[in-house]
């Protein structure tokens, strides 16, 4: 079981099937939207 975590706000974005327990870091939609608004 894998978990997708936002590297900016540390919220859990999603879970996915994997052979190992894995944590992947990405950016959630909220953090992506904030970056676009600030530019």
Topology:
Blueprint: E1 2-6, E2 12-16, E3 22-26, H1 29-38
Parallel strand pairs: 1-3
Antiparallel strand pairs: 1-2
InterPro entries: SR1P
Protein name: GapA-binding peptide SR1P
Descriptive account of the structure:
By secondary structure, this protein is α+β, with helices and mostly antiparallel strands. The protein has one domain (2-30). The protein contains one helix and three strands. It has one helix at 29-38, and strands at residues 2-6, 12-16, 22-26. It has a three-stranded mixed β-sheet with strand order 2-1-3, with no helix packed on it. Strand 1 and strand 2 (12-16) form a beta hairpin. It is elongated.
Q: What's the order of the H and E elements?
A: EEEH
Give the radius of gyration: 12 Å
Number of DSSP strands? Answer: 3
- Please state the structural category: alpha+beta
The overall average pLDDT, rounded, is: 84
Into which percentage range does the β-strand content fall? 35-45%
Pfam families: SR1P
Protein name: GapA-binding peptide SR1P
Organism: Cytobacillus praedii
Comma- or semicolon-separated keywords:
3 strands; elongated; 3-stranded mixed beta sheet; alpha+beta; SR1P; GapA-binding peptide SR1P; 39 residues
A few lines on this structure:
This is GapA-binding peptide SR1P. The protein has 39 residues and is an alpha+beta fold.
